[in-house]
Amino acid sequence: MLKILIVAIMATSSTEHADTYVFTEPYFNSVSECHAYLNFNSPVVAEHLYKTFNGAKIKNIYCLSEKQLNQFLENTRA
Fold first, then answer.
1. What's the predicted TM-score (pTM) here?
2. How far is CA 48 from the centre of its chain?
3. Ramachandran sector of residue 73 (left: φ over 0; alpha: ψ -120 to 50; beta: rest)
């Protein structure tokens, strides 16, 4: 079963490594489901990230499969 997760990249002061946040719940069966959720719930998602990262701005939010997420994390490791 394909599992799509919400992944946020934060615009932090670190130039070497971006802070990444992965929402493990909810997860979705398709990218379109994930996009629909974000379109409806973006204020809640943004508020959670704002609190978690002490006011840092969001650089980007993605809907990624677990495989894509693992590839992304592997490519961004120091």
1. 0.85
2. 12
3. alpha
